[in-house]
Design goal:
- The structure is a homodimer of 686-residue chains.
- In chain A, strand 17 and strand 18 form a beta hairpin.
- Chain A has 686 residues and is of the alpha/beta class.
- In chain A, the strands form 6 sheets. Chain A has a 7-stranded mixed β-sheet with strand order 1-12-14-13-15-19-16, sandwiched between helices.
- The first copy, chain A, contains 20 helices and 21 strands.
- Chain A is globular and about 85 Å long.
- Chains A and B meet through strand 13, helix 9, helix 17, helix 18 and helix 20 of A and strand 13, helix 9, helix 17, helix 18 and helix 20 of B.
């Protein structure tokens, strides 16, 4: 051990050594993208073992393999899934492709899982086809109300994009559809002026998007909600699992719809008489399967009971060229470089935990089960969680989503990192990013977004209330209107995709590695936790403004039902005062005395936890963060004050308006109380 | 501030000054028992103000009055409640008394609330009367199954005792009764050879037991479950409140049943044709009412963010001679004596919080709302909670209910306190207690029981997982078979009751004050928290044994449904090893270094928290302690592994045996996981 105050001068030095050391991403990325490694398969276990072995060699104090037995879903190998057009005699006159054309260089690879929708029900429904655009609530409602088309008993065809595919399926089920076909529309999956893979990075017509379609709302393994899926754990009967889709779902590419790239597709709702009849043939099986997380640790020197976590998934639908291996390579490289520091005698103030999660693609099972397994310790000890999914999804600039208290650290850090862009020698990542994506008119700084869901930070942030961040390289969202990145979840996510198109110098991945590594380093090493509670106060003020604006779209009802946001604004005001006073007290803190430092650090650490409501959000017991959660209508979109947001969203669809507004008032009260209580945790503790 | 290691030698000295100083209980008890001070009344607010003022004078750093607006229940002053016997023409030929005869010396006192059942529904049901003994599940089942008597549409008459009165009412509602009469049977409320008050401490025939009959299961204010009942808090519609009784309920004394004391009463089930017809006339109102907690603090010198809480209620049904003022006087006296220490320059290592709770009698509202209001801070910072309800309920010996980790402290402390019994000069409280109530054949030590519920520790222990204890003087439960103490919740709970009968020298109350004060002192002052995790391990082993024995009453079903306790025993084994290793590491801890001391103290503090399951027990979201909670069938009885216990209890009443055993298995799995996870928190943190 070492003295409490010693680390201030030396930690800056070590950070300066750490950041440039991240220079081996190219071979690491190559190494882990050669073979398909779907969750629950032999190859994904082999990669886990290899990673664990190498982490130990890099110098971590401990590495363990942590298995869970969770419900996964695989196509039936002897009965492939496909969709047919059937004629009036019931004969299949056209069948969709059974697999994607394998990219060059991978022809001999086995175990490429064909495109499918994980957790689809089995079945062979047959019927008329109805096109429902993106399958959003408003799409179904437009279809029903404006066009008088009822989808009950129909098969719906929905294009990917805008919202999480699981929400599309839920909406289809609620509307009474008996099957769902998901497809990639070139309008959403081809960038303008770009060739299809392998000549460019657009989605070829034979490619399709795999993905799970289950709205787990944070439950992790659906058979063991709230508890880790260990060997002895009691498992619910499959029939009792809430939210498991009960209709067949299947994804196809645009070739199977005979649409060529870069051409306008079906306009809204024209496909009703697309074909005489459609039959889906789906034989996908749910099965309890063993998965493996790899957990490595560097023991903290002074505060071993404070945890800083870097976690990202390892499982991929196929090769995972972008998702997740561009991120997993970054984790591996960060472990290697932290190992170099350890060899030089460095040891962080706090404990660092590195995680290679399994089964993210099936619904965040690996990370969620581990969070459930370690909930007590994480709740008491975790300082921050940095997520490491795909490190790149575009070639434009940095993208950061994080909790408000990390804004300042992200800015400080990116000023110490070099821009990876050509022609920007001597320019910081901060400047490069700022130039490309300024926040808003009223805030001159690079844009930082709210965390939504759809990756492994979910259980740590939304369920447990641990300050969290994610960072990646992204596209220009002003000009590049396609969804996600075009080859997302297809077989064309290869090493070459990154090496030839996205990041030929691997400098972008390196910049992302430096951001992630720097966050972990500073959270683990700073004597005072680098969390800015004033930023949280500012953000709460903006969120309160924006939710009241949403409500004010109904001025008459606001008056009629006496809906007031006063308590929320008053709570935000109290919080802001407490935050400002807290930072003032920090200025006069005696940093030589370890106990007062620990006391204030604990207040910083537990601030995010104070936004957790053990009651959960309405109907979603595992989404417990009152400030941030995805809306119930789109898992990907992070909303602020999600309880109020959802209650307002439901106003227009509710049969009982008075009751719907009562729910809005209830949610405002909960938000006001939570913000007030969180502010109280920042006041002097006695 | 002072140095970390300084306090070891001086703290013993201060404890030796503290304990003998508790010598003003007699005047304090007299002062606060002169007037009725029901929750929500003017007089109870006046006492609160007086207490707050005096606490400040005693020397506390801060005192605040904390109001909440909660649902309470009062008789209608203009329409008294009573029960009639009606003849065949519907005329009331006999009416029960409207009030108890006022005891001598209190004739001029106003605002004595007559006996009533708080939260009774209003109504005037009329019908046949059926006697259902104590109203337990087994009593109703015997009536129905063995005697073929259906109580649907009947008024049931149930004697007080054995289980919480709210559970009796729930059972009656489930059985279809349309009204409940509760009465005090001399067999349960008169001690042998004792005269009735004022000549002795037995219940007179004109006395009756007030009490709330609402099974809140830890929710506190029923209109704001999970949140503090502040001004701005959203309140549920009364109609939506789960568990509020929907039938009239009323208590009567034995004079109204024409039974004289010390004589055998109705034998079981003979009262069916007791009278032609009975009519209940109940006009009790539920109303949202302001209540007031008084919260005082002594700021901790070294760890201001660690809280030790002494809390007890102030509200009384009438004078509160025993319940709660025998305990509230103790709290007041402890504040006074801690004030004396402060004047001598002492300041505890940790923060001490003193609480005078309101509205305990209506269902723990004051303490629960404050726990909800401060949940985040309590979760992170509370070291222990000592409850201070009635300090005496008998004249025999000490009674302690506490969490296992406090057993050792209780024993150590009672060895430093003198026995209050005559003829035991020079004998310690420990010896006196040990002699009168040895634990069991296999454990030679004074008996300590599990915490149940029915007093203000509930939210702190069962919902939040804060190590908790209560101590009081009690009767000889081997020989004194009456329920509670005879005049419980009657107007006869006066100062004189204590001064003449229970504790004429006030030495028993003083011994209880010393136990409560000593617990607070040691929890607040010891450098290492005085919590013994080995004791927790031992207790878990015993609880596991006893729950498996309960299950083994069904050996064939255990086999048929493959019910195994292996995972639970394995978890208890792991926990025991972790506990032993933890205490071994404590031996070698460098106590001069504040950080490792804090780290291990945090592990000790958070151990109790580790038994909290945010999912709650089945159907009882606010009972979240997996090891300790009351059974669903009797709020007063603390059960270990309550989830398993209730699941086993339900086996015999379940229509679907297979499903009932599935629930047993589910609960075993949860218990095993929780014990395992709690054990993990004791291992080295990195």
């Amino acid at each position: 051990t070492r003295s409490n105050s010693a680390n201030k001068s030396t930690s800056g030095k070590y950070l300066k050594e750490l950041l440039p050391a991240t220079n081996c991403l190219h071979p690491l990325h190559r190494k882990f993208t050669r073979l398909p490694h779907l969750a629950g398969t032999e190859q994904n276990l082999r990669y886990a073992e290899q990673i664990g072995k190498e982490w130990l060699e890099f110098g971590l104090d401990t590495v363990e393999m942590v298995p869970y037995d969770v419900l996964l879903s695989y196509p039936n190998k002897s009965q492939p899934n496909y969709i047919s057009i059937v004629d009036q005699f019931g004969s299949e006159v056209f069948n969709t492709s059974l697999a994607e054309p394998v990219p060059e260089g991978y022809e001999d690879v086995s175990n490429i899982v064909p495109p499918y929708s994980a957790f689809s029900a089995k079945g062979q429904p047959e019927g008329d086809l109805v096109y429902v655009n993106y399958g959003r609530t408003e799409d179904f409602s437009q279809l029903e109300k404006d066009m008088g088309i009822n989808v009950t008993g129909k098969i719906v065809i929905i294009r990917y994009g805008k919202i999480f595919r699981g929400n599309k399926v839920t909406n289809a089920m609620l509307a009474g559809a008996k099957g769902v076909i998901l497809f990639s529309d070139p309008a959403d999956y081809c960038a303008v002026g770009v060739q299809s893979y392998p000549h460019g990075w657009n989605l070829p017509g034979g490619g399709a998007q795999r993905g799970n379609i289950f709205n787990m709302n944070g439950a992790g393994d659906p058979l063991t909600p709230g508890y880790p899926a260990k060997e002895y754990t009691y498992r619910s009967n499959l029939e009792n699992v809430v939210g498991l889709p009960n209709i067949p779902v299947h994804p196809i590419g645009y070739n199977d719809l005979a649409i060529s790239c870069q051409k306008d597709f079906l306009s809204l709702f024209v496909a009703v008489s697309f074909s005489p009849k459609v039959r889906m043939n789906i034989h996908t099986n749910n099965q309890v399967t063993r998965i493996h997380n790899v957990i490595g640790r560097i023991r903290g020197a002074l505060e071993p009971d404070r945890y800083v976590i870097l976690g990202g998934h390892r499982d991929a639908w196929v090769f995972g060229g972008i998702d997740p291996m561009s991120g997993a390579a970054v984790v591996h490289e960060i472990v290697r470089t932290f190992g170099l520091l350890l060899r030089k005698g460095w040891r962080p103030r706090r404990t660092i935990i590195f995680a290679s999660w399994d089964a993210e693609e099936f619904g965040l099972q690996g990370s969620t089960e581990w969070a459930e397994d370690n909930a007590k310790m994480l709740q008491e000890r975790a300082v921050g969680y940095v997520n490491a999914d795909s490190a790149i999804e575009g070639m434009y600039t940095l993208r950061v989503d994080c909790t408000p208290s990390l804004h300042t650290l992200v800015y400080d850090l990116t000023k110490q990192i070099a821009s990876p862009e050509e022609g920007e020698e001597g320019v910081s990542l901060y400047e490069s990013w700022h130039k490309r994506d300024n926040w808003t008119n009223d805030r001159d700084a690079p844009r930082i977004s709210k965390l939504g869901s759809g990756s492994d930070f979910e259980a740590y942030f939304i369920r447990l209330g641990i300050a969290a961040a994610r960072a990646r390289y992204t596209k220009n969202k002003e000009t590049e209107r396609y969804s996600s990145y075009p080859v997302y979840h297809s077989v064309y996510e290869t090493f070459e995709l990154v090496d030839k198109f996205y990041d030929p110098t691997f400098k972008r991945l390196r910049a992302v590695a430096q951001v992630r590594a720097g966050l972990i380093f500073q959270l683990a090493e700073s004597q005072l936790l680098p969390l800015d509670v004033n930023q949280y106060a500012d953000s709460l003020g903006k969120y309160a403004q924006s939710i009241v604006q949403l409500a004010q779209r109904h001025p008459q009802e606001m008056t009629k039902y006496e809906v007031s946001f006063d308590a929320l604004f008053s709570a935000v005001g109290n919080f802001s005062v407490a935050a400002r006073d807290f930072h003032e007290r920090l200025q006069t803190l005696n940093r030589e005395d370890p106990m007062p430092v620990r006391v204030m650090n604990d207040q910083l650490m537990y601030l995010e936890r104070a936004f957790i409501d053990p009651m959960g959000l309405p109907g979603r017991p595992f989404y417990r963060h009152v400030i941030f959660a995805p809306s119930s209508h789109n898992k990907y979109a992070g909303e602020s004050f999600p309880g109020i947001y959802d209650a307002l969203f439901d106003i227009k669809n509710s049969a009982d308006t008075a009751k719907a507004w009562e729910e809005v008032k209830h949610q405002i009260s909960i938000a006001a109380f939570t913000v007030h209580a969180a502010g109280m945790t920042l006041t002097p503790p006695a």
